[in-house]
Request: fold
Amino acid sequence: HDEAAPADGSDLPEYYQLAEDWLQDNIDAEVTELYLMKRYNLTKSQLSTLLARGISEGWVERKQGYGWRFLPVAKTKAALEHIFSFRMVIEPMAILEPTFNAPQEKIDEIRRELEMLLDNGIERLSPKQLQLAGYRFHETVIAFSNNPFFEISLRNVNRMRMLMDYRIMDDRSRYYAEVKDHLRLLGLIESGQRIEASYMMKQHLAVALENKKMRRISAEI
Reply:
């Protein structure tokens, strides 16, 4: 039961604190377990849970021999821009792939989730759950390309983004515009307007990047 507890992240404030300390250069890249237990007042078991989550999200690794290392994934403004410029290439192009196919039942499933978010989910869900819902939409759309390399690439990039997104998930109001965009995109895909959907995806990602840069700057001031 303990292993499943932190799934949505709402009960692991120390995880966000560690991520924030790493992003702000308040902590060294290589540390010992004892140092982390003391700094964040954690038991060995709690620290293991926290580090396991960092490993699964791609920014923590065990050093050979002794201690832990934090990786500089998506840590800088340049890294954020690289991630989004890469996404602006692969996500719109995936929609134009000749093998692209969006089954109606999958479209209906995504639409139900998006409508739930607009209905009350944006206010009700934890920041982590909202973050994963956004990732799930983009990963599902890219999977419609039926080209596994598109999907694998986006999943890897999203793992790196998670860390950077933690500090800017407190503004729930921005999710409304994002979810409405996702619904419009889904409508274009459903009606076979793939060129329009591809163009809209590029615009959607460009706006998301600008918003993230603005929120990141405000988080740093």
